[in-house]
C-alpha cells in the first residue's frame, strides 16, 4: 500500500529507485539461544560468512591493484584477521559452549580482542582495533543477510543508480564513502538541513531527505520509493499514475540542468557590469573536476577534515601535502582556499580515534575547529607545513574556522610563522605571501568584526554555523529544524553588517555557507554588496543564472529597505518581490 513520509528536503531533484536498508551491523545484533541440534548449523553459517567475506576481500584486492599501497595493506590486514584463530576459532567455541547465534558469538569475541588491543602502548598496535571492528562488521553484515553492495547488484540485477539508501542516521564519514558509489538518493530518520551529512548530499547533487523520523522502520528492503528532495517528501510504493507524474518532473529537471550548462563559460557579471566571483566548496581532491565542470573560478572552501573522517589516525605531512597539491594542480592556477581542520562536533574522527578526547557535553560549543588545532600544536604544524609546501604549485589561501577571539588569530598567525620558518630552515619552497582569512561563523566575530578586519587578509562567512549560534539551534537536530531560519532578521543583520564593514575596510569577503548556493538568495546577497559566493559545484550555474539577470546597483537600496523590516512575514514577502 502506498504511503508518504515528510521530512526535510536537503538536496533538490527527484529520485526514483528501490530501498536499500543500511544499518550499523555490530550495533544491532540480537542475542538468541539456539537448540542443541542447531549448533552445527550455526557454526556452518559462520564459516560460510567468513569464507564469503574472504573472497570479497580477495576480489577487492585484485580490483585495487593500482590503488595506494595503504589500501592494499588494509585489505591484507583484514584478510589476516579472518585467518586468525582468535577471531575464527573462538566464536565457534562460544557458539558451542553458550548455544548462541553466530552474530552474538562473534561480537563477544570482538569485544575481547578490542579490549586487548586497547592495552597496547604502541599506538600503531592500538589502532588495529579499528581493523578488527571493520572486519567483524563485514562478517556480521553477511550473516544478517545484508551482503555487500557488489553482491547485491549481481544477485538482483540492481544497479547502484537505482538504489535509495535508507538509514536511521549517516555520519559524514558514511556519506564520504558513498562518493565511490552512485546511489540515486539517501534518506534518513534524523538530521537537520545543514547537518554535514546533508551538505554532503548536496555536494554529490543527489536528491535526499533527512529527518523522516521512522523511515527505516516503515520501509522494507526493495520497495519502490520516490524521493522529492525539493519538498522533503518520500512516497513509498507509489501507484502507476504518481510514478508517471514524477518521472515527468524528473525529466523536466534534467532538461533544465542541460540548459544551464550553456552558461558554463559565460562571464559571471551583473547587467550593470559588476563582476561576481563564483567559487566551489569541496570536501575531497576527487571533487576538483566537478568544480571545474560546474564553472567554478576557484575553490572558496576546501573542508580538509573530510579527507580523514573515516579513519582513526591523523594523516602525516606528506599525505596531506599530496592531497592539497592535487587540488591546487587540478585547479590549474585558479585560487584554492584551504580551510584548516574543522574537527569536532559532528565531524569527528572515527569513534575509536585516539587523536583527541571527544567532547561529551555541548560538542558544538566545545574544543572544535581552531580551538582544537591550537590545543594540538603538533597536529596544527603538520597541517600548516603541508599547506605551505603545496602553495608552491599555485595560489593557495589559508582559511581558519570558528574564530571568536583576537588572540586566536594572533596565535594562528604565530603558528603559521613557525611553520614558515621551519620550512625556510630546510630550504623548502613555499608562497611567502600566502593570504590568511578567517571564517565568520560565530556571532561574536560578526559583531566585533573590526578585530578580524585588522588582522586578516580576507573573510568568509559560514552561514551554517552563524545561524546555529545566533539562533541557538543545533543545525543537525531535526526536532528544532523548523526554527533554523536563515531569514531571521538577526541573521540578516549580522550578514549585512559583516559584508558592509569588510567592503568599507577594503577586505574581500565571501559567503561559503549553504545560503550562498541558494538561488533564491542571490539577489538579496548582491543587494547587500556581496561579490564572492562559494557553494557546491552543482549550484554554481543556477546562481550564475541569477547573477546574469540582476542589476546590483538597483538591488542595493531595495535590500537596504528590506533589512529594516523585522516582521518575518513581511520579510518573506519582500524577498518574493525581490525575486519576482
Ligand atoms: C559554515 O558553517 O557555514 C561552513 C561553511 O562551515 P561548515 O559547514 O563546514 O561548518
Ligand atoms: Mg562552519
Description:
There is one protein chain. This protein folds into three domains: 3-22 and 150-258, 3-Layer(bba) Sandwich (Glucose Oxidase, domain 1); 39-144, PtsI, HPr-binding domain (Enzyme I, Chain A, domain 2); 271-579, Phosphoenolpyruvate-binding domains (TIM Barrel, Alpha-Beta Barrel). Helices cover 48% and strands 13% of the residues. It contains 23 helices and 16 strands. It has helices spanning 39-63, 69-81, 85-98, 102-118, 123-143, 149-156, 172-178, 196-203, 215-218, 240-260, 288-293, 317-330, 370-375, 377-390, 406-425, 443-447, 449-455, 463-471, 489-505, 522-528, 537-548, 552-563, 568-579, and strands at residues 3-6, 8-11, 14-21, 163-167, 185-188, 208-210, 224-228, 233-236, 277-282, 299-303, 336-339, 396-400, 435-440, 458-461, 509-511, 532-535. An eight-stranded mixed sheet has the order 1-8-7-3-4-5-6-2. The chain has an eight-stranded parallel beta barrel with strand order 9-10-11-12-13-14-15-16, surrounded by five helices. Strand 4, helix 7 (172-178) and strand 5 form a beta-alpha-beta unit. The relative contact order is 0.10. The structure holds phosphoenolpyruvate (PEP) and magnesium ion. Phosphoenolpyruvate binds next to strand 10 and helix 18.
